[in-house]
Amino acid sequence: MVELLVESSVLIILVLALRTIFGGLVNYRILYGLWGLVALRLLLPVPLVQTSVNVMQVWHETSAILHDQSAKWDNGKENVEKEKYDAENETDRPEQASSQQDVLKQQDSPISTEPEMSSKGQQTDAQKGDPGDTATQREQESSAYYKQKTTGEASADTSENQESSASASMEKGEQTGKQGKNAADASGTEHQIKNPLSYFRYLVQKIGIEEVIFGIWCAGILICLAILISGNVSLYRKLYRDRKLYMGNGRYADHKTGQHLRIYTTSVLSSPCLYGCLRPGIYLPKDLVEEISDSKLEQIIVHEQTHYRHGDHIWSVLRMLLVSIYWFDPFVWIAAASAKRDAELACDEAVVLSLGEGQRHDYAAMLLE
Length: 369
Hints:
The chain is mostly helical.
């Protein structure tokens, strides 16, 4: 899909450039025919011509070259900064080395053993105590043991009570936490629904970015088709109710094709046009028919017949379809508008070539009006 969009955009830009350069120098029917290549590229999923040069390949190679140049630039910048940092810190290295040597000398110096000797002496004196002191010490130890045992039983009961109360409070906290989590989830869902951006992120996390983009694309196609189809159906109904046949049976012979197109007058339109796909007809405004001369009216009818010979009513439907499919691509909209303008120029050019010298001047004056 990306390759199709890139190649079609490049082709549209190329056709626009050719129109700008050769407009007025080349037959407009040739320039109008170039839009057929754009339409084929947009309709076909494969390239029109297989060549050794690919637009996406050139794009990837250019991106790789730019990435390599950027990486080299970043590496060179880091090396320069590193050299600058090393040069600034080079003067501090002798002081750090001298301080490290002083610390090593202090660690290698002998440690005094007098404190150990004094402690050993105190321990010997303590071991040489008299028997009276030993008996008194035993009584104190037994009473202390009894108190410790009694206190231990009481503390055990207290710890059991604390454990039971703690477990109850933990259960209560878990229930409160679950309720809070459910409330937070509900509020979060409501927030996601209220905020479009948050809701879009939620959909992306839920079903994936590709599926979301595909859904948006299909929705856009349906909306564009619905707008265009409903507008044309509404216009056709208005024309069908208001139109009236012109020139007796409403037929005007096209001597070049041998076909007859029905001609109608209507008050719905303000300018003449060829309308319809399967059974097209020429529609003329009532006010225009009453105001202009028969010769000018004949030139207008010839103009609309030329549109029919060029198949512009079918190209109009194709443009509508392509614009609906590629509604997100601005290049397709530009191409559709430019192709419609080239269709008019090609039609005017063909009409001028089919008219005589005197009629050409009148037709040109009518176009200016």
